[in-house]
Amino acid sequence: MKILxxxxxxxxxxxxxxxxxxxxxxxxxxYILDKVSQHSEAASINVPEDQIHYEPGDFITKADIIILxxxxxxxxxxxxxxxxxxxxxxxxxxxxxxxRVATLISSTGAEKIVRCMPNLPAQVGMGMTVFxxxxxxxxxxxxxxxxxxxxxxKSMHVDDESLIDAxxxxxxxxxxxxxxxxxxxxxxxxxxxxxDSEAELLVQQTFLGAIHLQSKGENTCAEWIGKVASRGGxxxxxxxxxxTLNTKEAIHDALFAALNRAKELGS
Length: 267
Description:
Layout: E1 3-6, H1 10-21, E2 30-33, H2 39-44, E3 52-53, E4 65-68, H3 75-82, E5 91-94, H4 101-108, E6 112-117, E7 127-133, H5 139-149, E8 153-157, H6 162-172, H7 174-191, H8 196-215, H9 221-228, H10 234-244, H11 247-266
Parallel strand pairs: 1-2, 1-4, 2-3, 4-5, 5-6, 7-8
Antiparallel strand pairs: 6-7
Helix pairs in contact: 6-11, 7-8
């Protein structure tokens, strides 16, 4: 199998490193197309020099899977350049935010389209990717694509493309919500008297521990809250503040604001 990655920024490099480290493909079967020189980055993962390109060309026809990892605003010009080289058997996998399947089909002429929404932790192999595919993809091709995506974490296939916008709001933007909450806890810990490094360790380990507990699947989040919060205790006092401030509704409103913005960007 030969894979072409178009756009060798953060996401393009993440996929390349994931594919190679998992030995899904060898460097000899990886091609790179980027409008700026990424020679040193590509060379660092042993991609042969003659497989690093800066302009579209016949090499595109060699790829079985073409990954579009460019900025959405750069896609119209890119599509014009690569369309003459797209072949019927090729699978196009897009990680571009907001670019609809219909747009990908009309712009590239391809029928086998996968649109996915990864998130930032994919860079450390802990990503969450939601993807959808056109009916022209057979089960074998879907299996291969999902295995590729899973080299960067976990994935979920959805039939309804609108759920890609929902995934953008939940898992795509989600790491920023977590960092925001962590930052707030770190700042509060420092106000209580901890040094910045101590506050960061307290919060980081608390999140890691809580995630590991929740991921065991032995209890729901509500049940875990109940195990921590004893009647009349410190946790209950904090939770009452959350309830008074309607924190749960604020979180819901924030996610739906992200969802609505995702829909606007894709219209």
